[in-house]
Structure to design on (171 residues):
């Protein structure tokens, strides 16, 4: 860290110490921790405006809040528009979504060895084909590469999502 930056941070801490005592700091941090999303950002922006002269950097130094989050909250306060997060688009996509033909090929392979629930209590189909066997059949019969297919555990999950349950043959 450069000397000028270190000196600036130490002066910043000195200037903020009289303004915020430990009790107020802990109260602000606790309140921010309990809020989420736009409400949290609005709270942070209001605190920064009231106590830190609108400086997100000062709030980051003193309270440990993310500067970008505070700036987004300030922007939302100024513009009147709330930014909405698209949480559903995050994360890993399902294998069936990445390879749309895979579900149809699995249905074709498993359909011949499938039976309905004998008590008709559910819409699930029972099959004697294992996930390992489905993977092998996809490679040999449908021409998939092993590197393009998921692992055995994931194939079992896919079979469950497609409403297939493995049922052992009773002797």
């Amino acid at each position: 860290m450069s000397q000028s930056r270190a000196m600036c941070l130490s002066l910043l801490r000195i200037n903020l110490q009289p303004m915020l005592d430990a009790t107020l700091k802990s109260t602000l941090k606790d309140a921010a921790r309990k809020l989420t999303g736009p409400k949290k950002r609005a709270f942070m922006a209001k605190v920064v405006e009231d106590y830190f002269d609108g400086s997100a950097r000062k709030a980051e130094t003193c309270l440990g809040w993310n500067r970008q989050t505070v700036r987004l909250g300030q922007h939302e306060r100024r513009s009147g528009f709330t930014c909405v997060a698209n949480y559903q688009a995050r994360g890993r996509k399902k294998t069936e979504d990445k390879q749309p033909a895979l579900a149809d090929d699995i249905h074709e392979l498993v359909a011949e060895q499938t039976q309905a629930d004998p008590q008709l209590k559910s819409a699930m189909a029972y099959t004697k084909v294992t996930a390992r066997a489905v993977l092998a059949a996809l490679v040999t019969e449908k021409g998939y590469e092993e590197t393009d297919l998921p692992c055995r555990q994931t194939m079992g999950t896919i079979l469950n999502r497609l409403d297939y349950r493995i049922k052992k043959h009773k002797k």
Observations:
- Strands lie at 114-116, 125-127, 164-166.
- The mean pLDDT is 82.
- The longest helix spans residues 37-51.
- Residues 95-166 form one domain.
